[in-house]
Amino acid sequence: MVFLKHTDHHIIEVILKEHPQWGHGDGICRECLDYYKKSVGHTPYIDET
């Protein structure tokens, strides 16, 4: 499970739009987080490189 940084909350909004049954308490795997970051044009943080 991955803990999200404050600036990643817009990604949560996208996930909830596409998957309204998903709950914050369900967590998100690294692969899914990376997929959504790429899909919204997210630039990696310094500690993500």
Search tags:
49 residues, mainly alpha, 2 helices, globular
Q: How would you characterize the overall build of this protein?
A:
With 49 residues, this protein is mainly alpha-helical. Helices cover 41% and strands 0% of the residues. It is built from two helices and no strands. It has helices spanning 9-18, 30-39. The longest helix has 10 residues, at 9-18. 4% of the residues are buried. The model has no long low-confidence stretch (mean pLDDT 76).
Largest sheet: none
Taking the alpha carbons of the first and last residues, their distance comes to 18 Å
Taking all Cα atoms into account, the compactness measure Rg is 10 Å
- Percent of sequence in beta strands: under 5%
Please mark out the parts with pLDDT under 50 across 5 or more consecutive residues, or reply none. Answer: none
Based on Cα principal axes, name the global outline.
globular
Structural class: mainly alpha
Q: Determine the mean pLDDT.
A: 76
Q: What share of the residues lie within helices?
A: 40-55%
By DSSP, the count of extended strands is: 0
Q: H/E element string?
A: HH
Number of helices in the DSSP assignment = 2
List the helices and strands and how they pair.
Blueprint: H1 9-18, H2 30-39
Outline:
The chain has 2 helices and no strands.
